[in-house]
Automatic annotation (TrEMBL):
<keyword id="KW-0812">Transmembrane</keyword>
<dbReference type="GO" id="GO:0005886">
    <property type="term" value="C:plasma membrane"/>
</dbReference>
<comment type="similarity">
    <text>Belongs to the peptidase S49 family.</text>
</comment>
<dbReference type="InterPro" id="IPR029045">
    <property type="entry name" value="ClpP/crotonase-like_dom_sf"/>
</dbReference>
<protein>
    <recommendedName>
        <fullName>Protease 4</fullName>
        <ecNumber>3.4.21.-</ecNumber>
    </recommendedName>
</protein>
<feature type="domain" description="Peptidase S49">
    <location>
        <begin position="132"/>
        <end position="283"/>
    </location>
</feature>
<keyword id="KW-1003">Cell membrane</keyword>
<feature type="transmembrane region" description="Helical">
    <location>
        <begin position="12"/>
        <end position="37"/>
    </location>
</feature>
<keyword id="KW-0997">Cell inner membrane</keyword>
<keyword id="KW-0645">Protease</keyword>
<keyword id="KW-0378">Hydrolase</keyword>
<dbReference type="GO" id="GO:0006465">
    <property type="term" value="P:signal peptide processing"/>
</dbReference>
<dbReference type="InterPro" id="IPR004635">
    <property type="entry name" value="Pept_S49_SppA"/>
</dbReference>
<dbReference type="GO" id="GO:0008236">
    <property type="term" value="F:serine-type peptidase activity"/>
</dbReference>
<dbReference type="InterPro" id="IPR004634">
    <property type="entry name" value="Pept_S49_pIV"/>
</dbReference>
<dbReference type="InterPro" id="IPR047272">
    <property type="entry name" value="S49_SppA_C"/>
</dbReference>
<keyword id="KW-0720">Serine protease</keyword>
């Protein structure tokens, strides 16, 4: 207990002591909560139940962070975050479970939700739901206000019901990046750029007030590819031609309930009580019951799958390593991929004889070039001993592609964002800002470039040339690694690089991706490469362990999570809140730029498809 208090709570007292007091809990109270949770025998699944999938749930690649788990324990709220792997496993388990008759997609709370999953993530869930339907089970979706993203998933349902006062936004996809150059200039903050690649749009928000022609070109092509996949998938499920969906987007855009039904986008118009009544019939619930027989997806994920054949027991392991978030130098923290901590995991897995193959799941826009190189080296060394297969999520670009380039095989979804093979550096100075407020500097130095790191003035042409040589060198290293890892001539890599962003479909056509497929497809391929047949089980990394293990400090040191309670979200009316969140995301990205050389391989800043 002394070790527990010393090591775990020393750095947390300031952050969570207030919370404990507020909830009337001390350390003893928290431990009692943990003990009570550990004694829970698990959820009960009644016969003829519906699994309820709340589409407002936040979906991540890896497990929820420690801060989120602690908040759930303290608040007693139902889990509002799940990993993609847990969702896919739960849907497959429900497909085999004779007690489960269907899945209810609840889209009534999607407006303003924390679910930021992209189209590639929804593509994988969509395929799992289609497989569930093929087993003869029902998928029912109900909502009030559908946009393209959630409807992309919901359109796979047997029956889609829209509230009579609801609406649908089917107007195509857009991306609206925010440009900060005018504000920086207004406040006297200077920016100098060193880069390679004519498509390297990551620096544009700091030096331009609109998209460059090259960046506009690549963004348009990316949106076109993702939109084509959307129209094909939705059109196939709803028996609507892609041309008709395009006409709806161009001519109607915002459809009231009756319009959505007449265009075949939904099957029925109905209120929530009517949907509940229909689901009562499907589940043979008593008329007097308040609701239909159900279990939430997060609860159902906790149901043991051994009797359903979804739990494997084998000495052979396939490790799934999640690289999710910004790539940063060092250990990294919540929501980041630390180059050193990632390398440590791969070194450990390389030495474990029972780990027969590794699937590297990447969901990252890139970041520190130095960290990416540290990570890529470990991937290459590991590949020499056992198969390493990459599964790309919503985005695996720039530094995210760097670490993928030396794998045995790369899988991506059609709507994955990848490529962006290019590097850049941003050099800020506060000379004008300081001078305008009466602040000046003077310098004494022993070498010509001794003060080259200063923020007090812009870089000289000679200093910029030094930075440019460094950027050029790293860019050439990047090209060489892609050429060798992908077995593509360097001239061809140089042609398709230039910092350009590609969809998964386009990336496959030019050789940057091997196969179109999701995480399950990558795992199946890894098992085949390791010649395991069906004799294997999955093990996920980083290993966070249970909440009790995290609190009590029993998790291995290399993968301990930092307990850091999330700040409250700024509550402002839309659309102002959305734009302020964009600005916050841009500034947060700058905070994570910690490469020791100041050189980055990163996607155009916070590219968001809406």
């Amino acid at each position: 207990m002394q070790n527990f208090i010393k090591q775990t709570f020393a750095s947390l007292v300031g952050n969570i002591l207030g919370l404990f007091i507020f909830f009337g809990l001390g350390t003893t109270g928290l431990l009692l909560l943990l003990f009570a949770a550990s004694q829970n025998p698990g959820p009960v699944v009644k016969d003829k139940s519906m699994v309820v999938f709340d589409l407002s749930m936040k979906i991540t690649d890896g497990e929820p962070s420690s801060s989120q788990l602690i908040q759930q324990v303290l608040s007693g709220e139902e889990q509002k975050q799940m990993s993609l792997r847990s969702i896919l496993d739960a849907i497959e388990k429900a497909r085999r479970d004779q007690r489960i008759v269907g899945i209810y997609l609840d889209a009534t709370r999607i407006s303003g939700s924390d679910n930021t999953a992209g189209f590639a993530t929804f593509k994988e869930i969509r395929q799992a739901l289609a497989k569930f339907r093929a087993a003869g089970k029902k998928v029912v979706a109900y909502g009030m206000d559908w946009g393209e993203r959630e409807y992309y998933l919901s359109s796979v349902a047997d029956t889609i019901v829209l509230n009579p006062l609801g609406a649908m936004e089917i107007n195509g996809l857009s991306s609206q990046p925010m440009f900060l150059a005018g504000a920086l200039q207004k406040y006297g903050i200077g920016v100098q750029v060193v880069r390679v690649g004519k498509f390297k749009g990551a620096v544009e928000p700091f030096v331009l007030d609109k998209l460059s022609p090259e960046n506009r070109q690549q963004t348009q092509k990316l949106l076109d590819d993702v939109w084509t996949e959307w129209r094909n998938a939705v059109g196939y499920s709803r028996k609507i031609t892609p041309a008709k969906l395009q006409a709806i987007a161009d001519n109607q855009a915002f459809l009231q309930a009756e319009q959505a039904k007449s265009n075949g986008l939904v099957d029925k118009l109905g209120y929530f009580d009517q949907v509940v009544a229909a689901l009562k019939q499907l589940t043979d619930s008593d008329k007097d019951d308040k609701t239909f027989r159900q279990i939430s997806l997060s609860e159902y994920a906790q149901v043991p799958g051994k009797s359903l054949g979804t739990e494997r027991n084998s000495k052979n392991k396939i490790a799934v390593v999640y690289a999710e978030g910004e790539i940063v130098d060092g250990q990294g923290s919540d929501g980041e991929i630390g180059g050193d901590s990632f390398a440590r995991i791969f070194r450990k897995l390389r030495q474990q004889e029972d780990v027969k193959a590794i699937v590297l799941r990447i969901n990252s826009p890139g970041g520190s070039a130095t960290a990416a190189e540290v990570m890529q080296r470990e991937v290459r060394l590991t590949r020499e001993k056992k198969p390493v297969v990459v599964s790309m999520g919503d985005v695996a670009a720039s530094g995210g592609y760097w670490i993928a380039s030396d794998s045995n095989r790369i899988f991506a979804e059609p709507n994955t964002i990848t490529g962006s093979i290019g590097v850049f550096g941003l050099l800020f100075n506060a000379q004008e800002l300081a001078n305008n407020n009466g602040i000046t500097w003077d310098t004494v130095k022993t070498g010509r470039y001794a003060d080259s790191q200063t923020l007090s003035r812009p870089k000289t042409p000679e200093e910029l040339a030094i930075y440019q040589r460094s950027v050029n060198k790293i860019y050439n290293i990047f090209l060489d690694k892609v050429a060798q890892g992908r077995n593509i001539p360097e001239a061809k890599v140089a042609e398709i690089a230039q910092g350009r962003v590609w969809s998964g479909t386009a990336a496959k056509n030019i050789g940057l991706v091997d196969e179109i497929g999701g995480l399950d497809a990558a795992i199946t391929y890894a098992a085949a490469q390791a010649k395991l047949g069906n004799d294997w089980k999955l093990e996920e990394y980083p290993k966070y362990g249970t909440l009790e293990e995290r609190i009590l400090g029993k998790v291995p040191e290399q993968t301990k999570a930092v307990l850091n309670l999330d700040e409250q979200k700024l509550q402002l009316p839309d659309p102002l809140a959305g734009e302020l969140q964009k600005l916050k995301a841009e500034l947060a990205t700058l905070k994570k730029m910690n490469d020791p050389q100041g050189v980055y391989a990163r996607l155009p800043f916070n590219l968001k498809i809406e």
